[in-house]
Amino acid sequence: MRLTTGNRQLWLLALRQRTVWSRVAKVGLPVGVLQVVINQGDVWLAHQATGLTVFKTIISPLVTSSVALVSAASTWVERQSKL
Question: Any idea what the Cα angle at residue 29 is, between residues 26 and 33, rounded to 5°?
């Protein structure tokens, strides 16, 4: 997909849509938290967390939410482009 001025405007509009952010909150954050529980849960339960564990705990939901954000925004842009 080539980014044009009109397309860029659609992407900026998509990032302002409540439905896009709602999808991030409903899909991205819970999946990110689940990843944290699966990947770092045992370290936290054993009280062996390090700085790296804290970093991974913070970054996992952010990465997953970013993927959900791009996906939801992309869907919104595609729907608007078809109108």
Answer: 130
